[in-house]
Amino acid sequence: LKKRGTVRVTASGLLCDWTGRRSKARPPFALLVGLIMKRLGSVQRKMPCVFVTEVKEEPSSKREHQPFKVLATETISHKALDADIYSAIPTEKVDGTCCYVTTYKDQPYLWARLDRKPNKQAEKRFKNFLHSKENPKEFFWNVEEDFKPAPECWIPAKETEQINGNPVPDENGHIPGWVPVEKNNKQYCWHSSVVNYEFEIALVLKHHPDDSGLLEISAVPLSDLLEQTLELIGTNINGNPYGLGSKKHPLHLLIPHGAFQIRNLPSLKHNDLVSWFEGCKEGKIEGIVWHCSDGCLIKVHRHHLGLCWPIPDTYINSRPVIINMNLNKCDSAFDIKCLFNHFLKVDNQKFVRLKDIIFDV
């Protein structure tokens, strides 16, 4: 801050003073990341594609048994333009499962994504309605009767529209929501492996605060992650596209959404993005998520551009990483088989690549 006004960060990472003039001085990387992260939105619903999409009657490379592909045209969508996509912050789209941190039982808790889906009868009515080329928003849902029951602790996602106190299904006929990750729930055992509620901490992968070229795995207070969404990645998530851990010693981590900003993205043109994904190491990612100033999130997936995913060597798993647990007070307090204990054994060690972390017992 300056006495005469506020310093702001541009999408390119340069400082501007209150007049809008760019400063020659570059702030510390940690300060830049901190300022930028405060502006980034959380993932509470499905994100639209940056381009207008079209359906092609060809087998999908993304989903088995899907007889069609959804491909991007060269036209930027109205949603993207309305959200001022050209001044948005581009970040890496991470391939995992979405999580959320909010309060449960009077303490910060990790929540897993659980969308409420219609029962068979309602789903059949909805599909027939869609096949008649009708607008899905005009379909009438009876939420109390048309949907499978949800767990008692289920909550709807924040941005879910509500009418008369009932959540309204999205255009796919789902109601996005969350359930708390309990310690002994086998259904969410990989989620629970990255949190410890006794010490209220989570295993998080992010940039090292002082070195933009280095990743860091650390135990982060859950209170620091409140109201954020994150991506859980690892051995048993989505086919393990990042090649982490092994069947004998699975490895899972949380990545805050927006954690990996893309710094040298080309112009927002279909062909330029294809060339970027195919031609440089930074492009070896699942996709891009643009965080817009109004909180809107816009994406593009490699599959939208006709490109393959997963790929053999990704940008994340090829980067150097250091372990900084900072848990001196609880060194002997963890179960011998838990991830926190494994990481404590390699605390302060640096690995040439993220995928090189292998736990031997």
Automatic annotation (TrEMBL):
Keyword Nucleotide-binding annotated: yes
Domain of life: Eukaryota
Cofactor field: Mg(2+); Mn(2+)
One annotated GO biological process: response to reactive oxygen species
EC class: ligase
Catalytic activity: ATP + (ribonucleotide)n-3'-hydroxyl + 5'-phospho-(ribonucleotide)m = (ribonucleotide)n+m + AMP + diphosphate
The EC number(s) this enzyme carries: 6.5.1.3
Statement: the UniProt record of this protein carries the keyword ATP-binding: yes
GO terms of molecular function: ATP binding; RNA ligase (ATP) activity
Keywords annotated in UniProt: ATP-binding, Ligase, Nucleotide-binding, RNA repair
Protein function: Functions as an RNA ligase, in vitro. The ligation reaction entails three nucleotidyl transfer steps. In the first step, the RNA ligase reacts with ATP in the absence of nucleic acid to form a covalent ligase-AMP intermediate and release pyrophosphate. In step 2, the ligase-AMP binds to the nucleic acid and transfers the adenylate to the 5'-PO4 terminus to form an adenylylated intermediate. In step 3, the RNA ligase directs the attack of the 3'-OH on the 5'-phosphoanhydride linkage, resulting in a repaired 3'-5' phosphodiester and release of AMP.
Name used for this protein in its record: RNA ligase 1
Organism encoding this protein: Gorilla gorilla gorilla (Western lowland gorilla)
Primary gene name: RLIG1
